[in-house]
Design brief:
By secondary structure, the protein is of the alpha+beta class. The chain is built from eight helices and ten strands. Keywords: DNA damage, DNA repair, DNA-binding, Glycosidase, Hydrolase, Lyase, Metal-binding, Multifunctional enzyme, Zinc, Zinc-finger.
């Protein structure tokens, strides 16, 4: 799933490549991906792309005051094309096409979504805040107002595991499954630690890990082609998706806790005092 660093890089990529170009037309192949109807997606035709931004994990393309807002969900992606195919787009394939945006110079981009679970969401709105998911976002972890004091206020009184709290977009915007694993590894913190139990030094360490991990990932992704972002993300991850490999910090074996539709990875030596975490049925440290 694309998270804050990848969406930030996509926004920067589109600012560089698409700004100043008019939308020639928009082809919709997956009607289910469209979540709004007023203004219609056809209203983008003839308007000029004036910028691109990120709101949490939402990508926002400004088209003369109308906003094409995209949430890529679990398996969506943006694929840039210097030259759009002349033949009409067809549904299906390995990465089914949901929407295609043609620009006036022949370039453009596709929104695709692999797999059977469809979550890609496309909105055309006059104000990004009209998208319910954006209106409900918590603070951006790279914003100046996201201070250690702000994080302390967030975790105070919350009887929930810190892993889940970091992934809650209404609490902190932009962090998903992968970067929450990376943040907790950098903070040397168990993913099952209860948020309200964090002391002052714990909060400071977690804040530093959040900001540092995300800034590093954004810096690595800056200037990359859209097609290279997924590979860069995988390369930069230290524990997420690396079950069975050696921790790059201590050399211990990275372990996994599997859930119904996701999993988390962690280093026992770095994060849980050497004790392995229980599976999803027990959800507590093994004794």
């Amino acid at each position: 799933m694309p998270e804050l660093p990848e969406v930030e890089a996509l926004a920067g990529f589109l600012r560089e490549r698409a700004t100043g170009h008019a939308v020639a037309r928009v082809d919709v192949l997956a009607i289910s991906a469209l979540k709004t109807y007023d203004p219609p997606v056809t209203a983008l035709g003839g308007l000029t792309v004036t910028g691109a931004a990120r709101h949490g994990k939402f990508l926002d393309v400004d088209v003369d005051g109308l906003h094409l807002v995209v949430h890529l969900a679990r398996a969506g992606w943006l694929r840039w094309r210097e030259e759009m195919p002349q033949r009409p787009a067809k549904p299906g394939g390995r990465n089914p096409l949901a929407l295609r945006v043609h620009l006036d110079d022949g370039s453009g981009f596709d929104l695709t979504e692999a797999g059977t679970r469809k979550g890609l969401a496309v909105h055309v709105v006059r104000d990004p805040a009209d998208v319910p998911g954006i209106a409900a976002l918590g603070p951006d972890p790279l914003a100046p107002e996201f201070t250690p004091e702000a994080l302390a206020a967030i975790v105070a009184g919350r009887r929930t595991r810190i892993k889940g709290l970091l992934r809650d977009q209404k609490v902190v915007a932009g962090i998903g499954n992968a970067y929450s694993d990376e943040v907790l590894h950098a903070a040397r913190m168990s993913p099952f630690k209860i948020a309200s139990s964090l002391a002052g030094e714990d909060v400071a360490a977690l804040h530093a890990a959040i900001v540092g991990t995300l800034r590093d990932a954004v810096a690595r992704s800056a200037g990359l082609e859209a097609q290279d972002l997924k590979g860069e993300k995988r390369t930069g991850l230290r524990v997420h998706g690396r079950t069975g490999e050696k921790c790059p910090v201590c050399g211990d074996t990275v372990r996994e806790v599997a859930f119904a539709d996701s999993s988390l990875q962690y280093c026992p030596s770095c994060q849980t005092g050497g004790a392995p975490l229980a599976d999803r049925r027990m959800s507590r440290l093994l004794k």
